[in-house]
Amino acid sequence: MRQALNNLQAMYSGFRFVNQENVFKVCDLPHPLHVKNMVRNVLGGKFDDACSGLKQLYDLGYSPTDIITALFRTIKNYDMAEYLKLEFMKVLLVVSLGTSQPVKFSDVGCDIPELKGDNFKMWKKRVLLHLGWMDIDYAIRKDEPPAVTNTSTKAEIALYEHWERSNRISVMFIKTKISAGIRGSVDQHTKVRDLLKAIDEQFVTSDKTLASTLIMKFCSTRLDTVRGVREHIMQMRDTAAQLKKLKGKQTNKSTESATRSPHILEIIHTDICSPDMDAHGQRYFISFIDDYSRYMYLYLLHNKNEALDAFKVFKAEVEKQCGKQIKIVRSDRGEKYYGRYTEDG
After folding, report:
1. pTM of the predicted structure, to 2 decimals
2. pLDDT tens across 140-189, in order?
3. Considering only 14-23, 188-197, 285-294, 320-329, which range has the smallest mean pLDDT?
4. I need a surface site. Which of 238, 278, 323, 337 has the fewest CB within 10 A?
């Protein structure tokens, strides 16, 4: 008896609701055929039938624990990728434990906002998750197989039909989740990979713009007593991790002819960046980097014409601290200001 209990506990060790006291309850589960039909309906897109099956289990008096255990036993035998099994179980956990009332599977699987431009990242993640959860993302993960010919074998025909079905359904589903103003520019694509690539090209931001936005966010984030220290630290770590990831994409090129400063304040590099609009009204920031020490000063600006005032403040501060004068200032010579002089220089 003790060995049987240990075996049962080992089998369900990943579920916290199974312990020494309730280990016998896992034997009193819904009929496997009933559960298989519900899973088959979910994978086949028959959400209403799956919802009815879940309602029947609740009406028969089965608890969420019983339903989850039976679903776990069933889904682990399906020929699916492991990550799909995990995502499938996550959804079922939310559906079964999150409420004691019947829930529509379509509400869980189709909770995807319409793509309007400002929600691109969230939209793409949910679309890919939904297609993977429905097991129709094969055309996204795999290349298109050779077209069917008279000499094609049954295996080749089955493979192409599987890819073609996945591609067709994925394209139709993605297009229904795009607003009318955007759909016109990508509606000509009939392959899901080309469709996703075209959408990416419209909304993906450049690394420089993203880096500017992250730097602005990192420098302007302040500790909020309402959120607390823990959330503040987590937010700062997330921003730093994104900046580190962007740095890894960059390619370092050595410039042998470049003049490097042997002393502090001999050469100052400056640049003006324009991140996204900030809640406090600052639209730009200007940076000053000492070539020798690599120490940076950063000032927030409302308009670009405040750059000269920011430089004056920087110049007065660093020259007073170091007891030296700035000799050279290097910039990217932006077209808007290159060649424009004032009485101040």
Report:
1. 0.39
2. 999 999 999 999 999 999 999 999 999 999 998 898 888 887 888 888 99
3. 14-23
4. 323
How far apart, in Å, do the first and last CA atoms of the chain sit? 91
Residue type, 26: V
CA separation for the pair 8, 32 (Å, rounded): 18
In angstroms, the CA 336 to CA 305 distance is 11
Instruction: Say how far apart CA 287 and CA 250 lie, in whole Å.
Output: 20
Identify the helix (H) or strand (E) that includes residue 316.
Answer: helix 307-322
CA distance 116 to 344: 46
d(CA 37, CA 42): 9
Q: Classify residue 294 as left (phi > 0), alpha (psi -120 to 50) or beta.
A: left
Pick the more confident residue, 36 or 28.
Answer: 36
Displacement of CA 273 from its chain's centroid (Å):
25
pLDDT for residue 38: 74
